[in-house]
Design goal:
- By secondary structure, this protein is of the alpha+beta class.
- The protein is elongated.
- Residues 1-21 and 336-340 have low confidence and may be disordered.
- The strands form three sheets. Strands 2, 7, 8, 9, 10, 11, 16, 17 and 18 form a nine-stranded mixed β-sheet that branches. Strands 1, 3, 5, 6, 12, 14 and 15 form a seven-stranded mixed β-sheet that branches. A two-stranded antiparallel sheet has the order 4-13.
- The protein has helices at 17-29, 41-52, 57-66, 72-86, 104-109, 120-130, 142-153, 244-248, 273-279; strands at residues 3-4, 37-39, 92-101, 116-118, 133-137, 169-180, 191-196, 202-219, 222-228, 233-239, 253-262, 264-271, 296-298, 306-318, 322-334, 346-349, 354-360, 366-372.
Length: 375
């Protein structure tokens, strides 16, 4: 009895803000605190949603509950709208794919590979709602084909997500963003300044800076500023309690702000199986639950499909001109002023650990989020 898993995707208004925020809070609470990190809630939710389309019963409900969706119909519709909205912009691109290892079933069960396939309804839903392509691989080419597809979709920024071809099926989502600031940071302003890390150590690193009008909020020892990109997304930088982002981002007002923050680059690889189980997705990883019968069509044997691995690789580079970010999630189964009265300038200097959230401005979906705490 074997199973399968592979991941990547994303966003919309169909979720109540509280539900979306809860997912982000749960994920943030389980991120490492001893190093910088960036994670893509959008990519993870998209990959999980694809898996949910192949699940039923308790397995499907657990997946939907973890990110606050009441049903798959609304989320599938959101994915169509999200992809269409950004398809022409070039700033945000998402891609999805499902892969079947045709030799797996013969090697492990003695089953003729021709008798096993993705269920037609599952393939249709993935194609129509996620723009997902379906591919077939074998032990010889699985790693190269899937990693090659991921690298192509992320402009070569994410590689090596899959390392072992011994899986029956994989679901993959990628998110790629390359966006320029609306208000860029002049390169001539960049200079060395002191960053104090979480352990109290000081580091002399490059800070970029500029003064412009931006949405801002502060209170109770926390301050945050929203830095828009061209194309309908923005980064909100939070100094202090990161949980205030979700409760106060709607209270931000436009101010004149001097922003000084480090240029930074972060890369991570996360194995999220235990994280998701801790967040409430348990049955999907249970070999005896058998909740993914809607994913595969198999006539030769009773094959019990379950999720085995959930891997996400991420990368973000933020500099004077803008931000480039990429994420790939793979789920393997077993079986991102006018002149007038002078006003005070607010100083926002990110010279100590800060959180950041890259959001879709129209729907509020969190594409990427992370923390910079160590120089």
């Amino acid at each position: 009895m074997k199973g399968f898993t592979s991941v990547k995707n994303a966003v919309s208004n169909i979720f109540a803000p509280r539900a979306e925020q809860s997912f982000a809070q749960k994920l943030t609470a389980r991120m490492p605190h001893d190093r910088n990190y960036v994670v893509s809630p959008l990519s993870l939710k998209t990959a999980l949603a694809m898996a949910a389309n192949g699940a039923d019963g308790m397995v499907r409900q657990e997946i939907l509950s973890v990110f606050g969706a009441e049903g798959l119909g609304g989320y599938n519709g959101f994915m169509r709208e999200f992809a269409a909205r950004f398809s022409q912009s070039g700033e945000i691109e998402t891609a999805n794919s499902i892969w079947l290892n045709t030799e797996y079933f013969e090697r492990h069960f003695g089953i003729n590979p021709a008798t096993v396939s993705f269920a037609p309804d599952f393939k249709r839903v993935i194609r129509e709602n996620y723009g997902g392509i379906a591919g077939e691989v074998n032990y010889k080419n699985a790693v190269g084909e899937i990693n090659g597809s991921i690298a192509e979709r992320t402009r070569g920024k994410i590689s090596g997500v899959i390392s072992d071809p011994d899986f029956p099926a994989a679901l993959v989502n990628t998110v790629y963003m390359n966006a320029r600031w609306v208000n860029r940071f002049p390169a001539e302003n960049t200079m060395k300044d002191t960053f104090t890390d979480r352990n109290g150590k000081t580091h002399s690193i490059d800070f970029m800076s500029s003064t412009f009008r931006a949405d801002y909020w502060s209170g109770g020892g926390t301050a945050m500023v929203r830095l828009p990109y061209k194309g309908g997304v923005s980064m909100t930088v939070v100094l202090g309690d990161s949980a205030r982002f979700e409760t106060k981002r709607g209270s931000m007002t436009e101010k004149k702000v001097y922003v000084s923050m480090p240029k930074f680059k972060i890369e991570n690889t996360f194995e999220l199986k235990d994280t998701l189980a801790d967040m409430g997705v348990k049955s999907a990883f249970d070999p005896s639950a058998g909740g993914f019968d809607a994913m595969l069509e198999h006539k030769a044997a009773d094959i019990n499909v379950f999720l085995d691995k959930v891997i996400q690789k991420t990368r973000i580079v933020t500099a004077e001109e803008g931000t480039e970010a990429a994420a790939a999630t793979a789920i393997a189964a077993a079986v991102g002023s006018a002149p007038g009265k002078r006003e005070p300038v607010i100083e926002f200097k990110a010279d100590k650990p800060f959180s950041f959230y890259i959001c879709d401005d129209a729907g509020g979906e969190i594409l990427f989020m992370g923390e910079y705490a160590f120089a």
